[in-house]
């Protein structure tokens, strides 16, 4: 076990609802293994799993361990040692979490636990979020004894639209205070996402240009190579817009567009992010028609195999009009961003996995340089925040091309995390769990920010609920033609989706 650069989390019981589910085995347990290995959690962290599956703790441990073996998590001896240490501190309660009996058992467990601190993680289908919070509260489990804490961590999706998100917030806040609620958005656990604030606020040469005097437009892309696969039921009811935009893409947008907070405490940051999300223009129906397009992938080859069309995916209705791709042009109505469009796009079964923020600066006011046939225009400066894969930053500038003739050449100053830091094998949830355990809400969404995000996408949800079909696009492509038209009618182009370092391809 290594030594962390922060104090280990305080003693607590981590109660996982949905302990035998997919999220727990694929992400939550591997995260706890990583944290054990790095010393972020110690022997005073106990895990209490709760699930409907019958059996005792051995049933749970067997399931978890057999998954860890097949996933390769046990290949590394240090991870294996961390798991051996962790598994000794796992307990299990079998029962239905919509019934009070389970909560009596949890209460009994906690009353004998070494610490009164508890964090309850809702790794359960979203229709249960409100019920579990209510039952925890009714059974007295959210009452904080002097000096101890009780917190809940809620997975996504947080609501299905604006009205349901408002209703869920109201229900939660009826039973639990905002300071006890940790709404997860796993993008906030990514180093490159957290780095957006540092890139901006630790660098005068960047932040000084960060406004509509110098920035022409912003693009935010989350392209995925993966298709809908076995998630047909969930995805057909959700679609690309709900799945990715009001949560993950808006968190990126908020980091890019927020004003500098006057401190890095959670409330200052969440206040600034909330202000930006509330400044997103809420379109009329006519504006939504012009500023949003959607697509669904057809059948075709991708990554060396034949992918069936989205509508042929198991558990998807053959006449489904759910989108697997969405592109939007949004406006942030603030002094800083007036007139700067934010183009967002995300989709499944695309050309490559590529999540990035691209800031395109305005052209220089007067270009004296002679134009050359091969490069007729002086390209604009661009800053590319490569969120994943190959995390890094690229700054595209023009230089003099060596030689007697005065020619410019675009080059990229690029930084890759992997070249400078050992970022290791992380799930991305480590920082989120740590902050949950120490009680820092910076990386979690607040009720007002969530509702503002839903308000901005609601006009598109309403429009597409009227009917119509998403435009087709081929698997392995960059999305439907209508997405190109959306940006090209403004005289701009999408940044290439390739998932490779941008700086090295001139
Ligand atoms: N899986 C993932 O990669 C991701 C998941 N999420 C979110 O995490 C949450 C959990 O997802 P996931 O793990 O995939 O879902 P699963 O269905 O795999 O896990 C939920 C678990 O809860 C159990 N359960 C259901 N009803 C009850 C009940 N009444 N009482 C006790 N246990 C019950 C389920 O049992 P049974 O199977 O028998 O019904 C299952 O073991 C969801 O909100 C999802 O949106 C977010 C990001 C990624
Ligand atoms: O929440 C979700 O995110 C993933 C993409 O996350 P990433 O960290 O792999 O980029 C997405 O595939 C999934 O559909 C969505 O529910």
TrEMBL record:
<keyword id="KW-0313">Glucose metabolism</keyword>
<feature type="binding site">
    <location>
        <position position="224"/>
    </location>
    <ligand>
        <name>substrate</name>
    </ligand>
</feature>
<feature type="binding site">
    <location>
        <position position="156"/>
    </location>
    <ligand>
        <name>NADP(+)</name>
    </ligand>
</feature>
<dbReference type="GO" id="GO:0004345">
    <property type="term" value="F:glucose-6-phosphate dehydrogenase activity"/>
</dbReference>
<protein>
    <recommendedName>
        <fullName>Glucose-6-phosphate 1-dehydrogenase</fullName>
        <ecNumber>1.1.1.49</ecNumber>
    </recommendedName>
</protein>
<comment type="pathway">
    <text>Carbohydrate degradation; pentose phosphate pathway; D-ribulose 5-phosphate from D-glucose 6-phosphate (oxidative stage): step 1/3.</text>
</comment>
<dbReference type="InterPro" id="IPR001282">
    <property type="entry name" value="G6P_DH"/>
</dbReference>
<feature type="active site" description="Proton acceptor">
    <location>
        <position position="248"/>
    </location>
</feature>
<dbReference type="InterPro" id="IPR036291">
    <property type="entry name" value="NAD(P)-bd_dom_sf"/>
</dbReference>
<dbReference type="Pfam" id="PF00479">
    <property type="entry name" value="G6PD_N"/>
</dbReference>
<dbReference type="InterPro" id="IPR022675">
    <property type="entry name" value="G6P_DH_C"/>
</dbReference>
<feature type="domain" description="Glucose-6-phosphate dehydrogenase C-terminal">
    <location>
        <begin position="197"/>
        <end position="495"/>
    </location>
</feature>
<keyword id="KW-0560">Oxidoreductase</keyword>
<feature type="binding site">
    <location>
        <begin position="96"/>
        <end position="97"/>
    </location>
    <ligand>
        <name>NADP(+)</name>
    </ligand>
</feature>
<keyword id="KW-0521">NADP</keyword>
<dbReference type="InterPro" id="IPR022674">
    <property type="entry name" value="G6P_DH_NAD-bd"/>
</dbReference>
<feature type="binding site">
    <location>
        <position position="186"/>
    </location>
    <ligand>
        <name>substrate</name>
    </ligand>
</feature>
<keyword id="KW-0119">Carbohydrate metabolism</keyword>
<dbReference type="Pfam" id="PF02781">
    <property type="entry name" value="G6PD_C"/>
</dbReference>
<feature type="binding site">
    <location>
        <position position="190"/>
    </location>
    <ligand>
        <name>substrate</name>
    </ligand>
</feature>
<dbReference type="InterPro" id="IPR019796">
    <property type="entry name" value="G6P_DH_AS"/>
</dbReference>
<comment type="similarity">
    <text>Belongs to the glucose-6-phosphate dehydrogenase family.</text>
</comment>
<feature type="binding site">
    <location>
        <position position="348"/>
    </location>
    <ligand>
        <name>substrate</name>
    </ligand>
</feature>
<comment type="function">
    <text>Catalyzes the oxidation of glucose 6-phosphate to 6-phosphogluconolactone.</text>
</comment>
<feature type="domain" description="Glucose-6-phosphate dehydrogenase NAD-binding">
    <location>
        <begin position="15"/>
        <end position="195"/>
    </location>
</feature>
<feature type="binding site">
    <location>
        <position position="243"/>
    </location>
    <ligand>
        <name>substrate</name>
    </ligand>
</feature>
């Amino acid at each position: 076990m290594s030594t962390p650069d922060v104090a280990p989390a305080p003693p607590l019981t981590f109660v996982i609802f949905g302990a035998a589910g997919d999220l727990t085995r694929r992400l939550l347990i591997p995260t706890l293994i990583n944290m054990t290995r790095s010393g972020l959690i110690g022997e005073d962290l106990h895990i209490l799993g709760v699930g409907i599956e019958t059996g005792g703790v051995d049933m749970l441990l067997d399931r978890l361990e057999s998954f860890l073996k097949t996933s390769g998590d046990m290949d590394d001896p240090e991870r294996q040692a961390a798991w051996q240490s962790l598994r000794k501190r796992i307990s299990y309660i079998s029962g239905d979490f919509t019934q009070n009996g389970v909560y009596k058992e949890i209460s009994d467990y906690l009353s004998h636990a070494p610490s009164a601190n508890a964090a309850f993680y809702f790794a359960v289908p979203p229709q249960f979020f409100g019920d579990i919070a209510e039952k925890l509260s009714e059974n007295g489990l959210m009452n904080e004894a002097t000096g101890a804490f009780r917190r809940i961590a809620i997975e996504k999706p947080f609501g299905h639209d604006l009205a349901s998100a408002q209703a869920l917030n109201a229900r939660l806040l009826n039973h639990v205070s905002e300071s006890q609620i940790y709404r997860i958005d796993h993008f906030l656990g990514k180093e490159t996402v957290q780095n957006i604030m540092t890139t901006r606020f630790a660098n005068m040469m960047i932040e000084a240009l960060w406004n509509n005097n110098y920035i022409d437009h912003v693009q935010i892309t989350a392209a995925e190579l993966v298709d809908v696969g076995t998630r047909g039921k969930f995805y057909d009811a959700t679609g690309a817009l709900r799945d990715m935009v009001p949560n993950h893409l808006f968190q990126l947008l908020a980091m890019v567009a927020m004003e500098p907070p006057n401190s890095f405490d959670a409330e200052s940051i969440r206040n600034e992010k909330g202000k930006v999300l509330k400044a997103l223009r809420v379109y009329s129906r006519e504006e939504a028609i012009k500023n949003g397009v959607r697509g669904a992938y057809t059948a075709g080859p991708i990554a060396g195999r034949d992918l069936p069309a989205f509508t042929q995916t198991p558990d998807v209705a053959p006449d489904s009009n759910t989108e697997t791709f969405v592109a939007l042009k949004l406006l942030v109505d603030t002094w800083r961003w007036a007139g700067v469009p934010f183009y967002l796009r995300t989709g499944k079964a695309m050309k490559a996995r590529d999540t990035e923020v691209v800031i395109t600066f305005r052209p220089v006011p007067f270009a004296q340089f002679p134009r050359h046939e091969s490069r007729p225009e002086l390209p604009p400066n661009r800053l590319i925040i490569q969120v994943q894969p190959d995390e890094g930053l690229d700054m595209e500038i023009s230089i003099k091309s060596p030689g007697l003739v005065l020619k410019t050449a675009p080059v990229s100053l690029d930084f890759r995390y992997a070249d400078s830091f050992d970022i290791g094998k992380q799930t991305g949830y480590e920082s989120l769990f740590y902050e949950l355990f120490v009680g820092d809400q910076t990386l979690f969404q607040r009720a007002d920010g969530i509702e503002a995000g839903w308000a901005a996408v609601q006009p598109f949800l309403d429009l597409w609920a009227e009917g119509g079909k998403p435009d087709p696009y081929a698997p392995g492509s960059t999305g439907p033609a209508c997405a190109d038209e959306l940006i090209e009618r403004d005289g701009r182009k999408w940044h290439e989706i390739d998932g490779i370092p941008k700086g090295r391809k001139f």
